[in-house]
Structure formats: structure tokens, C-alpha cells
């Protein structure tokens, strides 16, 4: 089962690399603004998770440089479980106005980013 999951994961990564969406190109000014705005965002993810790939593709399409962390690493997994409430990826950590919000569900994350930055 683990081996099968590994093979499927590699397949997803391979297809993602071959059919990578075009990265949005912004003016230097716009990119600097986006980079500043997204500093407060962190994507908890697994490299080969299809839902995480879906979100990373959306980030690329939008030209968003959001920090990603590998939730398989014990330290990040613990933070996700304790502060987010469950170990499920992708999860977007939004730290703004002295509040931290943990957003689960790939579709919700993509919708949030599109509404905020499109
Ligand atoms: N409906 C969720 C599905 C996310 C999901 O199933 N993620 C899996 C990884 S592919 C997960 O976090 N499983 C829990 C675990 O691996 O501990 C979404 O669209 O984000």
C-alpha cells in the first residue's frame, strides 16, 4: 500500500512537472506588493499529495510566492495538529491582525487566494 502510494505520488509529480501551468508574470511593483501581502501566509503540505499539487498549481498560475512547509516533518505536523486542529493537508495558515486562521480544503484555499489576489 505504501509502495503503491509512493508510485502514484511520483506519477502525480511527473505529470505536474510535464504539464506545469504557466507562472503568472507581474510587474516588479505588483510582484513586490504580492510578496509583501503573502508573507503572512504559509502552506502546510505534502510534496506528492494531489490536493497540495492542485493548490501549488494555482499559486503558480497566480504568481504567488507563498512559503510552503512539509507537514510530514514532525515539528510541522505537530504544529498543524495542535494549532490547526487536525493533520490534513493542504492547509493554509493565515496570520493577520494578531490572529491566526487555519484554512483546510484545497478548493477553499484556492477560492480564498483568487478572491484576495486576482
Ligand atoms: N478534501 C481535502 C482532501 C485533503 C486530503 O485528503 N489530504 C490528505 C493527503 S492527500 C491528508 O491530509 N491525509 C491525512 C494524512 O495524511 O495524515 C482537500 O481537497 O484538501
Automatic annotation (TrEMBL):
Pfam families: GST_N_3
Signal peptide per UniProt: none
GST N-terminal domain segment(s): 39-118
Source organism superkingdom: Bacteria
PANTHER family, A to Z: THIOREDOXIN FAMILY PROTEIN (PTHR45288)
Name assigned to this protein: Glutathione S-transferase N-terminal domain-containing protein
Organism: Deefgea tanakiae
Amino acid at each position: 500500500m505504501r509502495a503503491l502510494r509512493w508510485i502514484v505520488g511520483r506519477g502525480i509529480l511527473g505529470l505536474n512537472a510535464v504539464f506545469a501551468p504557466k507562472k503568472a508574470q507581474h510587474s516588479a511593483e505588483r510582484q513586490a506588493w504580492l510578496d509583501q501581502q503573502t508573507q503572512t501566509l504559509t502552506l502546510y503540505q505534502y510534496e506528492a499529495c494531489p490536493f497540495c499539487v492542485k493548490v501549488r498549481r494555482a499559486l503558480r498560475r497566480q504568481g504567488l510566492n507563498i512559503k510552503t512547509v512539509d507537514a510530514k516533518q514532525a515539528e510541522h505536523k505537530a504544529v498543524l495538529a495542535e494549532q490547526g486542529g487536525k493533520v490534513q493537508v493542504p492547509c493554509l495558515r493565515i496570520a493577520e491582525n494578531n490572529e491566526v486562521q487555519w484554512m483546510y480544503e484545497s478548493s477553499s484555499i484556492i477560492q480564498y487566494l483568487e478572491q484576495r489576489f486576482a
